[in-house]
Amino acid sequence: MSELLLKIADCIEFGKINKAAPYPPQMKGQDGADELTKQAIDEGINAQDILSKGLMIGMEKVGIKFRENKVFVPQVLMSAKAMNTAMIHLKPFFQSGEVVQKGTFIIGTVEGDLHDIGKNLVSMMVEGNGWKVVDLGTDVKAEQFVAAMKEHENAFVGLSALLTTTMVNMEKITKAIKEEIPGAKVAVGGAPVTEDYCQKIGADAYSSDPQGLVEFLNSQVD
Amino acid sequence: MGKIIDQIKQGKTMVSDGAWGTFLQQKGMQPGECPEEWNLSHPDDVFDIAKSYIDAGADMVETNSFGGTIFKVEKYGLADKVFELNKAAAEISRKAAGDKFVLGSVGPTGKILMMGDVTEEELYEAFKTQVQGLEAGGVDAIMIETMTDLDEARLAIRAAKENTNCEVFCTMTFEKTVNGDYRSMMGIAPTDMVNTLIDAGAELIGANCGNGIEDMIGIVKEIRKANKDIPVLVHANAGMPIYDDGKTVFPETPDEMANLVPKIIDAGANIIGGCCGTTPDHICRVREEVDKK
Prior knowledge:
The complex is a heterodimer. By secondary structure, chain A is an alpha/beta fold. Chain A contains ten helices and five strands. In chain A, helix 1 (2-14) runs parallel beside helix 3 and helix 6 runs parallel beside helix 8 (169-180). Chain B is α/β, with parallel strands linked by helices. The interface between A and B is medium-sized, with 31 and 28 residues.
């Protein structure tokens, strides 16, 4: 059993979607996340174990390699694709409640900013680490964040911005969220954002890479 | 007037312009507004920016068209105005430039080919419409910039080569990794870029944006390791933005930028200009240093 889970973790780490996928070259012709996840379910392996001892292990490794600049955006995207393929097989177990996610994470690119590459990367990494993600898209206003936070109680929220000019909206949104939902935890990120800025605007967490955010979220529920 | 490339081949070091986006904000553009729409609604402000760089001594000025593909402007409901917005951008800079050169700015689309967001044909067509608008408005060269993905850069170059008579230039954006080497967001190293862009038809390559001119020196050295002859341009940021009292500020002063000009020329750059946070004062000082050299 553990060997199969290790293989699944490898498929996520290296972005092997299915047997037909040509990427990565060193795994050509081998079963991918698609086939192996199905096989694990057929063999009766617990769905929660497939997620947390297989898929999530692979995703964590990608997150760490990304932080260390050993892999770049394309590799992360391939890993996320492999993850999504595997998740299709696990979906019934989420619906039945057999697999439990760690919590809910709401994310959006802030008002005035239409960039979504960074936000999408973070969404995929957080989801791949066992969280339910609610993606509000781009150009998201304070009211929309607040409404989503009210709909999903105890959710964490992440604000993304690429531009120095739109980053300033993070302050307004953070304040609005904290006013409406005392105790809410707000994370901020994006190219121009820094730890210093995070502290100045009263947000709770900053990370320069998605893995840092995953670690923050996990630390809140463990 | 001849070509930019010919002047470089004669041994001339040239000066390009500074920031556009951050300058437009100073002029009152709000977050959430479409910068290219200003070419129609605020042509005088856009003209002022271009003119201020020419007055500062730049040999060439860009156009306000960085986000001028359909993939960007459609988000503002301007999908049917791509040609018009780019033509207007070019006309404004042309008018400001006088006998100086105009570089038609073409930025990335924000779509990722490998994710299946778009097809190669769609990207090619998007760039084609944009560069045709820029040429119609009178640009001398197409300046494809801030690229992070080689395939997107290659398609933009091809679209410009096959559909205009302009010179075609391309720069990519690199950051220093934790290991001290330079990579684009998509993992491309400066040396990886060189042959692909040249093979696609770029007559000049280089780097823009990034973390300040100091890093640019290292990037130019990397490019020169791979190719001694290709003309190289840098458009450097005025450092990494810092947050100060509700505003973001770019810390590198005109003097700090100018002091590094001799080094970047020695590293092998042929055209030097600025990106985010640089002002006409930066360009004026760069001009002085280039003339001293």
